[in-house]
Amino acid sequence: MNRIVIVGASIAGLSAAQTLRREGFEGHLTLVGAEPHLPYDRPPLSKQVLAGTWEPERIQPFDTGHYADLGVHLRLGRAATAVDLPGKAVVLDDERLGYDGLIIATGVCPRRPPWPHVHVLRTVDDAVRLSTALRHLPRLAVIGAGFLGAEVAATARTLGCDVTLIDPAPQPMARQLGPRLGARVARLHREHGVIVHTTTNVLRVTPNGVETHDGRFVQADLVVAAIGCTPATAWLAGSGLPLGDGIECDDRGRAAPAVYAAGDVASWHNPAFGTRMRLEHRLNAAEQAAAVARNLLGADRPYAPIPYFWSDQFTTKIQAYGILPADAEITLEHGSLTGDRFVVAYRRHGHTVGLLGWNSPRELRTLRAAWRPITPATRSMT
Ligand SMILES: Cc1cc2nc3c(=O)[nH]c(=O)nc-3n(C[C@H](O)[C@H](O)[C@H](O)COP(=O)(O)OP(=O)(O)OC[C@H]3O[C@@H](n4cnc5c(N)ncnc54)[C@H](O)[C@@H]3O)c2cc1C
Protein backbone atom coordinates (compact mmCIF):
# COMPACT_ATOMS: atom_id res chain seq x y z
CA MET A 1 0.00 0.00 0.00
CA ASN A 2 1.73 3.16 -1.19
CA ARG A 3 -0.94 5.85 -1.30
CA ILE A 4 -3.69 6.51 1.24
CA VAL A 5 -6.22 9.30 0.84
CA ILE A 6 -8.37 10.50 3.73
CA VAL A 7 -11.39 12.61 2.80
CA GLY A 8 -12.66 14.84 5.63
CA ALA A 9 -10.15 16.92 7.58
CA SER A 10 -11.70 17.01 11.01
CA ILE A 11 -11.26 14.90 14.13
CA ALA A 12 -11.81 11.52 12.45
CA GLY A 13 -9.55 12.45 9.54
CA LEU A 14 -6.83 13.67 11.89
CA SER A 15 -7.03 10.57 14.07
CA ALA A 16 -6.83 8.31 11.00
CA ALA A 17 -3.72 10.14 9.73
CA GLN A 18 -1.98 9.98 13.12
CA THR A 19 -2.79 6.29 13.52
CA LEU A 20 -1.57 5.37 10.05
CA ARG A 21 1.81 6.94 10.78
CA ARG A 22 1.95 5.50 14.31
CA GLU A 23 1.28 2.04 12.88
CA GLY A 24 4.19 2.41 10.48
CA PHE A 25 2.60 3.48 7.20
CA GLU A 26 5.39 5.25 5.33
CA GLY A 27 3.70 5.87 2.00
CA HIS A 28 2.09 8.98 0.52
CA LEU A 29 -0.69 10.28 2.77
CA THR A 30 -3.17 12.97 1.71
CA LEU A 31 -5.84 14.63 3.86
CA VAL A 32 -8.57 16.40 1.88
CA GLY A 33 -10.87 18.88 3.63
CA ALA A 34 -13.69 21.02 2.27
CA GLU A 35 -13.21 23.65 4.96
CA PRO A 36 -10.26 26.03 4.62
CA HIS A 37 -9.22 25.34 8.24
CA LEU A 38 -6.84 22.86 9.83
CA PRO A 39 -8.71 20.08 11.66
CA TYR A 40 -10.46 21.42 14.75
CA ASP A 41 -12.65 20.26 17.60
CA ARG A 42 -16.38 20.98 17.31
CA PRO A 43 -17.66 20.51 20.89
CA PRO A 44 -16.41 23.96 22.06
CA LEU A 45 -18.30 25.63 19.18
CA SER A 46 -21.60 25.54 21.10
CA LYS A 47 -19.88 26.24 24.43
CA GLN A 48 -16.69 28.32 24.83
CA VAL A 49 -16.44 29.65 21.27
CA LEU A 50 -20.11 30.61 21.17
CA ALA A 51 -19.78 32.24 24.59
CA GLY A 52 -16.76 34.19 23.31
CA THR A 53 -14.51 32.88 26.09
CA TRP A 54 -12.22 30.96 23.71
CA GLU A 55 -10.55 32.30 20.62
CA PRO A 56 -11.33 30.02 17.65
CA GLU A 57 -7.60 29.19 17.25
CA ARG A 58 -7.74 27.36 20.57
CA ILE A 59 -9.84 24.53 19.14
CA GLN A 60 -7.17 23.42 16.66
CA PRO A 61 -5.31 20.59 18.37
CA PHE A 62 -2.26 21.03 16.09
CA ASP A 63 -0.69 23.65 13.86
CA THR A 64 0.65 23.08 10.34
CA GLY A 65 3.99 21.90 11.73
CA HIS A 66 2.36 18.76 13.10
CA TYR A 67 1.06 17.77 9.68
CA ALA A 68 4.44 18.47 8.13
CA ASP A 69 6.08 16.29 10.80
CA LEU A 70 3.58 13.52 10.03
CA GLY A 71 4.26 13.85 6.32
CA VAL A 72 0.58 14.55 5.61
CA HIS A 73 -0.19 16.39 2.38
CA LEU A 74 -3.00 18.77 3.28
CA ARG A 75 -5.53 19.68 0.62
CA LEU A 76 -7.72 22.15 2.51
CA GLY A 77 -10.57 24.17 1.06
CA ARG A 78 -10.98 21.38 -1.52
CA ALA A 79 -14.12 19.24 -1.56
CA ALA A 80 -13.98 15.74 -3.00
CA THR A 81 -16.69 15.54 -5.65
CA ALA A 82 -16.68 11.80 -6.42
CA VAL A 83 -14.98 8.48 -5.88
CA ASP A 84 -14.06 6.27 -8.80
CA LEU A 85 -14.02 2.85 -7.12
CA PRO A 86 -12.86 0.75 -10.12
CA GLY A 87 -10.23 3.37 -10.99
CA LYS A 88 -9.22 3.77 -7.30
CA ALA A 89 -9.28 7.54 -7.35
CA VAL A 90 -10.85 10.41 -5.44
CA VAL A 91 -12.02 13.20 -7.72
CA LEU A 92 -11.57 16.85 -6.72
CA ASP A 93 -13.26 18.81 -9.49
CA ASP A 94 -10.63 18.67 -12.25
CA GLU A 95 -8.08 16.58 -10.39
CA ARG A 96 -7.82 12.87 -9.52
CA LEU A 97 -6.03 11.52 -6.45
CA GLY A 98 -5.17 7.87 -6.95
CA TYR A 99 -5.22 5.68 -3.86
CA ASP A 100 -4.45 2.18 -2.68
CA GLY A 101 -6.46 2.79 0.48
CA LEU A 102 -9.24 5.30 1.17
CA ILE A 103 -10.74 6.50 4.47
CA ILE A 104 -13.89 8.59 4.27
CA ALA A 105 -14.56 10.87 7.25
CA THR A 106 -16.82 13.56 5.82
CA GLY A 107 -19.09 13.89 8.85
CA VAL A 108 -22.57 15.32 8.59
CA CYS A 109 -24.32 18.41 7.20
CA PRO A 110 -26.84 20.36 9.28
CA ARG A 111 -30.44 20.25 8.11
CA ARG A 112 -31.52 23.72 7.08
CA PRO A 113 -35.10 24.91 7.41
CA PRO A 114 -36.67 26.62 4.39
CA TRP A 115 -36.72 30.16 5.81
CA PRO A 116 -34.02 32.79 5.23
CA HIS A 117 -32.07 34.37 8.10
CA VAL A 118 -32.09 31.16 10.16
CA HIS A 119 -28.64 30.24 11.47
CA VAL A 120 -27.19 26.79 11.89
CA LEU A 121 -24.15 25.78 13.94
CA ARG A 122 -21.75 23.21 12.54
CA THR A 123 -18.52 24.97 11.60
CA VAL A 124 -16.16 27.37 13.33
CA ASP A 125 -17.27 30.06 10.89
CA ASP A 126 -20.90 29.49 11.97
CA ALA A 127 -19.83 29.74 15.62
CA VAL A 128 -17.88 32.97 15.18
CA ARG A 129 -20.79 34.54 13.28
CA LEU A 130 -23.28 33.51 15.96
CA SER A 131 -21.02 34.51 18.81
CA THR A 132 -20.69 37.99 17.33
CA ALA A 133 -24.47 38.24 16.98
CA LEU A 134 -25.00 37.13 20.59
CA ARG A 135 -22.85 39.99 21.88
CA HIS A 136 -25.79 42.30 21.16
CA LEU A 137 -27.96 40.15 23.46
CA PRO A 138 -30.71 39.45 20.92
CA ARG A 139 -33.91 37.70 21.81
CA LEU A 140 -33.06 34.21 20.61
CA ALA A 141 -35.34 31.43 19.40
CA VAL A 142 -33.76 28.00 19.09
CA ILE A 143 -35.62 25.53 16.89
CA GLY A 144 -34.82 21.99 17.96
CA ALA A 145 -34.07 20.94 21.52
CA GLY A 146 -31.63 18.09 20.96
CA PHE A 147 -28.11 18.32 22.37
CA LEU A 148 -27.02 21.11 20.12
CA GLY A 149 -30.15 23.23 20.53
CA ALA A 150 -30.09 22.78 24.29
CA GLU A 151 -26.41 23.76 24.44
CA VAL A 152 -26.93 26.85 22.28
CA ALA A 153 -29.88 27.88 24.46
CA ALA A 154 -27.85 27.40 27.64
CA THR A 155 -24.84 29.36 26.35
CA ALA A 156 -26.98 32.24 25.06
CA ARG A 157 -28.99 32.38 28.27
CA THR A 158 -25.79 32.43 30.34
CA LEU A 159 -24.67 35.44 28.28
CA GLY A 160 -27.94 37.17 29.21
CA CYS A 161 -30.12 36.65 26.13
CA ASP A 162 -33.85 35.98 26.39
CA VAL A 163 -34.11 32.47 24.98
CA THR A 164 -37.01 30.31 23.80
CA LEU A 165 -36.37 26.67 23.00
CA ILE A 166 -38.90 25.12 20.61
CA ASP A 167 -39.33 21.41 19.87
CA PRO A 168 -42.09 19.08 18.65
CA ALA A 169 -41.25 16.45 21.31
CA PRO A 170 -42.81 16.78 24.77
CA GLN A 171 -39.41 17.34 26.43
CA PRO A 172 -36.05 18.67 25.31
CA MET A 173 -33.58 15.92 24.39
CA ALA A 174 -36.36 13.34 24.74
CA ARG A 175 -35.18 11.53 21.63
CA GLN A 176 -31.67 11.17 23.03
CA LEU A 177 -32.39 10.64 26.73
CA GLY A 178 -36.01 9.48 26.97
CA PRO A 179 -38.92 11.29 28.65
CA ARG A 180 -37.79 11.22 32.29
CA LEU A 181 -34.38 12.67 31.69
CA GLY A 182 -35.86 14.97 29.07
CA ALA A 183 -38.12 16.38 31.79
CA ARG A 184 -35.05 16.92 33.97
CA VAL A 185 -33.37 18.86 31.16
CA ALA A 186 -36.54 20.98 30.76
CA ARG A 187 -36.41 21.78 34.46
CA LEU A 188 -32.74 22.74 34.25
CA HIS A 189 -33.48 25.17 31.44
CA ARG A 190 -36.56 26.65 33.07
CA GLU A 191 -34.65 27.17 36.33
CA HIS A 192 -32.23 29.31 34.35
CA GLY A 193 -34.96 31.31 32.69
CA VAL A 194 -35.18 29.64 29.26
CA ILE A 195 -38.72 29.48 27.91
CA VAL A 196 -39.19 25.84 26.94
CA HIS A 197 -41.90 25.58 24.34
CA THR A 198 -42.43 21.91 23.47
CA THR A 199 -44.99 19.68 21.73
CA THR A 200 -45.26 22.12 18.88
CA ASN A 201 -43.74 22.57 15.47
CA VAL A 202 -42.62 25.66 13.61
CA LEU A 203 -45.07 27.00 11.04
CA ARG A 204 -42.85 29.77 9.72
CA VAL A 205 -40.00 32.08 10.62
CA THR A 206 -40.47 35.77 9.93
CA PRO A 207 -38.03 38.68 10.38
CA ASN A 208 -39.65 39.26 13.80
CA GLY A 209 -39.74 35.76 15.17
CA VAL A 210 -41.15 32.27 14.98
CA GLU A 211 -44.77 31.27 14.49
CA THR A 212 -45.66 27.84 15.86
CA HIS A 213 -48.39 25.41 14.90
CA ASP A 214 -50.19 25.90 18.20
CA GLY A 215 -50.82 29.55 17.31
CA ARG A 216 -48.08 31.22 19.33
CA PHE A 217 -45.65 33.80 18.08
CA VAL A 218 -42.19 33.80 19.65
CA GLN A 219 -40.61 37.25 19.27
CA ALA A 220 -36.98 36.82 18.22
CA ASP A 221 -34.17 38.90 16.76
CA LEU A 222 -32.08 35.82 16.04
CA VAL A 223 -33.18 32.30 15.15
CA VAL A 224 -30.97 29.23 15.29
CA ALA A 225 -32.11 25.89 13.89
CA ALA A 226 -30.63 22.75 15.43
CA ILE A 227 -32.87 20.22 13.75
CA GLY A 228 -30.41 17.45 13.14
CA CYS A 229 -27.93 16.52 10.48
CA THR A 230 -27.62 14.23 7.51
CA PRO A 231 -24.50 12.24 6.64
CA ALA A 232 -22.29 14.06 4.11
CA THR A 233 -22.59 11.43 1.38
CA ALA A 234 -24.17 13.40 -1.51
CA TRP A 235 -20.79 13.46 -3.28
CA LEU A 236 -20.75 9.64 -3.21
CA ALA A 237 -24.05 9.17 -5.06
CA GLY A 238 -23.58 6.71 -7.90
CA SER A 239 -20.14 5.63 -6.62
CA GLY A 240 -21.30 2.12 -5.85
CA LEU A 241 -20.57 2.51 -2.14
CA PRO A 242 -23.42 1.27 0.07
CA LEU A 243 -25.25 4.38 1.27
CA GLY A 244 -28.14 4.40 3.72
CA ASP A 245 -28.14 6.44 6.88
CA GLY A 246 -24.46 7.12 6.24
CA ILE A 247 -21.87 4.94 4.54
CA GLU A 248 -22.83 1.39 5.41
CA CYS A 249 -19.81 -0.54 6.64
CA ASP A 250 -19.22 -3.97 8.12
CA ASP A 251 -18.03 -4.47 11.68
CA ARG A 252 -14.47 -3.57 10.59
CA GLY A 253 -15.62 -0.21 9.23
CA ARG A 254 -15.08 -1.42 5.65
CA ALA A 255 -17.47 -0.20 2.94
CA ALA A 256 -15.71 -1.73 -0.08
CA PRO A 257 -12.31 -3.35 -0.67
CA ALA A 258 -9.67 -0.91 0.67
CA VAL A 259 -12.37 1.69 1.43
CA TYR A 260 -13.28 2.46 5.04
CA ALA A 261 -15.43 5.07 6.76
CA ALA A 262 -15.25 6.59 10.24
CA GLY A 263 -16.86 9.20 12.44
CA ASP A 264 -20.27 10.82 12.06
CA VAL A 265 -20.62 9.67 8.42
CA ALA A 266 -20.11 5.96 9.16
CA SER A 267 -22.87 3.49 9.84
CA TRP A 268 -21.40 0.20 10.97
CA HIS A 269 -22.40 -3.03 12.62
CA ASN A 270 -21.37 -2.76 16.30
CA PRO A 271 -20.85 -6.34 17.52
CA ALA A 272 -21.02 -5.20 21.17
CA PHE A 273 -24.69 -4.41 20.68
CA GLY A 274 -25.46 -6.71 17.77
CA THR A 275 -26.85 -3.80 15.79
CA ARG A 276 -26.02 -1.17 13.19
CA MET A 277 -25.10 2.25 14.59
CA ARG A 278 -24.13 5.69 13.41
CA LEU A 279 -22.90 7.96 16.19
CA GLU A 280 -22.42 11.71 16.23
CA HIS A 281 -20.06 11.73 19.20
CA ARG A 282 -16.61 13.27 19.49
CA LEU A 283 -14.91 10.30 21.15
CA ASN A 284 -16.28 7.85 18.61
CA ALA A 285 -14.97 9.92 15.71
CA ALA A 286 -11.40 9.66 17.02
CA GLU A 287 -11.57 6.03 18.15
CA GLN A 288 -13.38 4.69 15.10
CA ALA A 289 -10.95 6.45 12.77
CA ALA A 290 -8.02 4.90 14.63
CA ALA A 291 -9.68 1.47 14.39
CA VAL A 292 -10.36 1.69 10.65
CA ALA A 293 -6.85 3.02 9.97
CA ARG A 294 -5.44 -0.09 11.67
CA ASN A 295 -7.84 -2.30 9.72
CA LEU A 296 -6.83 -0.67 6.44
CA LEU A 297 -3.25 -1.65 7.28
CA GLY A 298 -4.36 -5.22 7.90
CA ALA A 299 -5.38 -5.51 11.57
CA ASP A 300 -8.79 -6.89 10.61
CA ARG A 301 -10.41 -6.39 14.01
CA PRO A 302 -14.09 -5.57 14.68
CA TYR A 303 -14.83 -2.15 16.12
CA ALA A 304 -17.06 -2.79 19.13
CA PRO A 305 -17.14 0.29 21.39
CA ILE A 306 -19.48 1.23 24.20
CA PRO A 307 -20.69 4.64 22.92
CA TYR A 308 -19.84 7.68 25.05
CA PHE A 309 -20.85 11.32 24.81
CA TRP A 310 -21.08 14.36 27.03
CA SER A 311 -22.98 17.64 26.94
CA ASP A 312 -22.40 20.83 28.95
CA GLN A 313 -25.41 23.00 29.71
CA PHE A 314 -25.19 25.86 32.21
CA THR A 315 -22.94 24.36 34.90
CA THR A 316 -24.33 20.86 34.38
CA LYS A 317 -22.25 18.14 32.77
CA ILE A 318 -24.25 15.29 31.31
CA GLN A 319 -22.26 12.18 30.38
CA ALA A 320 -23.52 8.89 29.07
CA TYR A 321 -22.24 5.45 28.16
CA GLY A 322 -24.01 2.82 26.13
CA ILE A 323 -27.43 3.26 24.59
CA LEU A 324 -30.32 5.17 26.14
CA PRO A 325 -33.55 3.83 24.62
CA ALA A 326 -36.58 6.05 25.18
CA ASP A 327 -38.60 3.09 26.46
CA ALA A 328 -35.91 1.80 28.85
CA GLU A 329 -36.58 1.38 32.54
CA ILE A 330 -34.68 4.05 34.51
CA THR A 331 -33.16 3.09 37.84
CA LEU A 332 -31.44 5.51 40.17
CA GLU A 333 -27.87 4.43 40.99
CA HIS A 334 -26.61 7.50 42.86
CA GLY A 335 -28.04 10.82 44.13
CA SER A 336 -31.53 12.05 43.38
CA LEU A 337 -33.24 12.86 40.09
CA THR A 338 -34.56 16.07 41.59
CA GLY A 339 -31.10 17.06 42.86
CA ASP A 340 -28.07 18.43 41.05
CA ARG A 341 -26.05 15.22 41.01
CA PHE A 342 -27.14 11.73 40.10
CA VAL A 343 -26.45 8.67 38.00
CA VAL A 344 -29.17 6.58 36.41
CA ALA A 345 -29.04 3.26 34.61
CA TYR A 346 -31.06 2.54 31.50
CA ARG A 347 -32.30 -1.03 31.72
CA ARG A 348 -33.96 -3.36 29.28
CA HIS A 349 -35.10 -6.89 30.02
CA GLY A 350 -33.27 -6.68 33.34
CA HIS A 351 -29.92 -5.66 31.79
CA THR A 352 -28.16 -2.32 31.98
CA VAL A 353 -27.72 -1.01 28.45
CA GLY A 354 -26.69 2.54 29.35
CA LEU A 355 -25.53 4.79 32.19
CA LEU A 356 -26.08 8.53 32.46
CA GLY A 357 -24.35 10.83 34.91
CA TRP A 358 -25.55 14.31 35.84
CA ASN A 359 -22.71 16.28 37.39
CA SER A 360 -21.31 13.00 38.68
CA PRO A 361 -18.18 12.07 36.70
CA ARG A 362 -16.54 10.15 39.52
CA GLU A 363 -19.60 8.07 40.42
CA LEU A 364 -20.32 7.44 36.75
CA ARG A 365 -16.76 6.21 36.19
CA THR A 366 -17.04 3.83 39.15
CA LEU A 367 -20.34 2.43 37.89
CA ARG A 368 -19.00 2.18 34.36
CA ALA A 369 -16.00 0.20 35.61
CA ALA A 370 -18.28 -2.22 37.44
CA TRP A 371 -20.77 -2.48 34.58
CA ARG A 372 -20.56 -5.91 33.03
CA PRO A 373 -20.13 -5.33 29.33
CA ILE A 374 -22.97 -6.41 27.08
CA THR A 375 -22.80 -10.16 26.53
CA PRO A 376 -24.06 -12.17 23.57
CA ALA A 377 -27.06 -13.13 25.69
CA THR A 378 -28.14 -9.52 26.09
CA ARG A 379 -27.18 -8.35 22.62
CA SER A 380 -30.32 -9.62 20.97
CA MET A 381 -32.43 -7.69 23.47
CA THR A 382 -30.93 -4.24 22.86
C1 LIG B 1 -21.50 22.53 17.85
C2 LIG B 1 -21.19 21.10 18.14
C3 LIG B 1 -21.02 20.69 19.46
C4 LIG B 1 -20.74 19.35 19.73
N1 LIG B 1 -20.60 18.97 21.05
C5 LIG B 1 -20.34 17.68 21.33
C6 LIG B 1 -20.21 17.25 22.69
O1 LIG B 1 -20.34 18.05 23.62
N2 LIG B 1 -19.93 15.95 22.93
C7 LIG B 1 -19.79 15.02 21.91
O2 LIG B 1 -19.56 13.83 22.19
N3 LIG B 1 -19.90 15.40 20.62
C8 LIG B 1 -20.18 16.70 20.31
N4 LIG B 1 -20.31 17.09 18.99
C9 LIG B 1 -20.15 16.08 17.93
C10 LIG B 1 -18.69 15.95 17.47
O3 LIG B 1 -18.12 17.19 17.28
C11 LIG B 1 -18.69 15.14 16.17
O4 LIG B 1 -19.09 13.83 16.51
C12 LIG B 1 -17.32 15.13 15.50
O5 LIG B 1 -16.96 16.41 15.09
C13 LIG B 1 -17.36 14.21 14.28
O6 LIG B 1 -16.13 14.26 13.65
P1 LIG B 1 -15.96 13.78 12.15
O7 LIG B 1 -14.51 13.99 11.86
O8 LIG B 1 -16.56 12.46 11.96
O9 LIG B 1 -16.86 14.77 11.28
P2 LIG B 1 -16.91 16.35 11.17
O10 LIG B 1 -16.35 16.96 12.41
O11 LIG B 1 -18.28 16.71 10.74
O12 LIG B 1 -15.90 16.66 9.97
C14 LIG B 1 -16.12 16.27 8.67
C15 LIG B 1 -15.28 17.17 7.77
O13 LIG B 1 -15.35 16.67 6.45
C16 LIG B 1 -15.50 17.76 5.57
N5 LIG B 1 -16.13 17.31 4.33
C17 LIG B 1 -17.43 17.01 4.10
N6 LIG B 1 -17.63 16.64 2.82
C18 LIG B 1 -16.42 16.70 2.23
C19 LIG B 1 -15.97 16.44 0.91
N7 LIG B 1 -16.80 16.00 -0.06
N8 LIG B 1 -14.65 16.62 0.63
C20 LIG B 1 -13.79 17.04 1.58
N9 LIG B 1 -14.17 17.30 2.85
C21 LIG B 1 -15.47 17.12 3.17
C22 LIG B 1 -16.36 18.74 6.34
O14 LIG B 1 -16.24 20.04 5.81
C23 LIG B 1 -15.77 18.60 7.75
O15 LIG B 1 -14.73 19.49 7.95
C24 LIG B 1 -20.61 18.41 18.68
C25 LIG B 1 -20.78 18.83 17.35
C26 LIG B 1 -21.08 20.16 17.08
C27 LIG B 1 -21.26 20.60 15.65
Question: How would you sum up this structure in a few lines?
Answer:
This protein has helices spanning 11-22, 48-51, 64-70, 124-134, 147-159, 174-177, 179-191, 282-296, 361-370, 376-379; strands at 3-7, 28-33, 72-76, 82-84, 89-92, 95-98, 101-104, 108-110, 118-119, 140-143, 163-167, 195-198, 202-206, 209-212, 217-219, 222-225, 229-231, 243-244, 246-249, 254-256, 259-261, 266-270, 275-277, 308-313, 316-322, 329-335, 342-348, 351-358. It has 382 residues and is an alpha/beta fold.
Question: What structural class do the secondary elements suggest?
Answer: alpha/beta
Overall, the morphology is globular
Radius of gyration: 21 Å
According to CATH, the fold-level topology of the largest domain is: FAD/NAD(P)-binding domain
Give me the side-by-side strand order of the main sheet. Answer: 3-2-1-7-21-20
Which regions are unreliable across 5 or more consecutive residues at pLDDT < 50? none
What percentage of amino acids are in beta strands? 25-35%
CATH-level-4 superfamily name of the largest domain: FAD/NAD(P)-binding domain
- What is the CATH-assigned architecture of the largest domain? 3-Layer(bba) Sandwich
- What share of residues is helical? 10-25%
Small molecules in complex: flavin-adenine dinucleotide
